[in-house]
């Protein structure tokens, strides 16, 4: 049985998906796949697209990735991949992918903040970083150096970066993109639960009887988790209910038993209604021991953020005064 590379990759993906959901795979297809994979090396990896946490298997041949499939041993995706996961290898070889550091330079090749990007060696990039980090440390101290990190850090990468910034430079100015896009949620978690993480876990999907998708098109944005929600719903359709609350209809709507379409910025009324219903009409549902031990309620954030504190305003005034003095000297 002869297969082109394209046909094989399509068949291999289909075979992996079929195996993940327990379907039988034709013997001829399995034999062809095994033969083609004889000189492949399979390694475990983490999918780097979103934050779901799926495990994948990457096949390499002659130093190049040739195939991707879901890791059957991964507890999150259990061998499944969404379309983004299957494209993990493709992004490695995109024509517009950066393969070397870029530095803003002038016409003479020297660093210029307003110059144009030009490719440089890794040695040159690290040398430039060293020079400017030293300048910043001398001028402003540890907080003069900051890192805006990737939201796709692995645990190990994030740990190393945190050690470098907090242990090495003694700076707290370290933020990943993940924290910036979730900043409002983090504040809510801290104020409600006293910890920077949501309550519950993925295993709750298999034991819950109600799933609420609120302002989240889960079917298209997190298809792997949605496959688990779908499995839970279809395994006990009379007991398990899915509620979709959104500003428009989308693919998540297809599975919903109840759907509420609201005008943007008006769903606060729903939150207030739910809170009032629990507190006034079903107080027995409140675990007061948990509330008293783990939750802190306040009327407003204690720290209003940079630029809003009185001390920040004073700093701005002092900065403006210094600027005026410099102008007078000139």
Kindly describe this structure:
With 330 residues, this protein is an alpha/beta fold. The protein is built from 12 helices and 10 strands. Strands 1-2-3 form a 3-stranded antiparallel sheet. A 3-stranded parallel sheet has the order 8-9-10, with no helix packed on it. Strands 4-5 form a two-stranded antiparallel ribbon. β1 and β2 (55-61) form a beta hairpin. The longest helix has 20 residues, at 310-329. Mean pLDDT is 83; it is low at 304-308.
Shape: flat
- What is the terminal separation in angstroms? 83 Å
Strand content: 5-15%
SSE string: HHEEEHEEHEHEHHEHHEEHHH
How many beta-strand runs? 10
Strand order of the largest sheet: 1-2-3
| Average pLDDT reading | 83
Oligomer: single chain
Largest sheet: 3 strands, antiparallel
Number of helices: 12
Please state the structural category.
alpha/beta
Regions with pLDDT < 50 over 5+ consecutive residues?
A: 304-308
Radius of gyration computed on alpha carbons: 27 Å
Q: Roughly what percent helix? A: 40-55%
């Amino acid at each position: 049985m002869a297969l082109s590379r394209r046909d094989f990759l399509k068949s291999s993906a289909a075979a992996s998906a079929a195996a993940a959901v327990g379907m039988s795979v034709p013997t001829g297809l399995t034999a062809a796949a095994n033969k083609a994979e004889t000189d492949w090396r399979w390694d475990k990896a983490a999918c780097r697209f979103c934050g779901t946490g799926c495990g994948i298997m990457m096949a390499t041949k002659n130093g190049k990735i040739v195939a991707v499939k879901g890791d059957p041993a991964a507890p999150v995706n259990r061998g499944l991949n969404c379309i983004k996961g299957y494209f993990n290898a493709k992004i490695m070889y995109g024509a517009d992918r950066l393969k070397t550091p870029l530095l803003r330079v002038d016409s003479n090749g020297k660093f210029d903040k307003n110059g144009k990007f030009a490719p440089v060696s890794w040695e040159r990039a690290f040398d430039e970083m060293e020079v400017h980090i030293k300048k910043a440390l001398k001028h402003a101290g540890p907080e003069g150096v900051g890192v805006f990190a990737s939201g796709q850090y692995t645990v190990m990468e994030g740990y190393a970066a945190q050690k470098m910034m907090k242990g090495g430079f003694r700076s707290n100015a370290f933020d990943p993109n993940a924290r910036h896009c979730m900043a409002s949620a983090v504040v809510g978690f801290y104020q409600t639960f006293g910890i920077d993480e949501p309550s519950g876990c993925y295993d709750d999907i298999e034991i819950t009887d109600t799933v609420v998708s609120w302002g989240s098109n889960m079917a298209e944005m997190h298809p792997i988790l949605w496959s688990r929600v779908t499995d839970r719903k279809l395994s006990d359709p009379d007991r398990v209910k899915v509620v979709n609350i959104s500003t428009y209809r989308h693919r998540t709507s297809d599975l919903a038993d109840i759907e509420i379409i609201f005008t943007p910025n008006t769903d606060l009324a729903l939150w207030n209604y739910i809170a009032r219903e629990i507190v006034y009409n079903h107080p027995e549902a409140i675990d007061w021991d948990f509330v008293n031990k783990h939750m802190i309620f306040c009327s407003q954030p204690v720290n209003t953020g940079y630029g809003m504190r009185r001390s920040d305003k004073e700093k701005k005034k002092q900065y403006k005064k210094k600027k005026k003095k410099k102008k007078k000297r000139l």
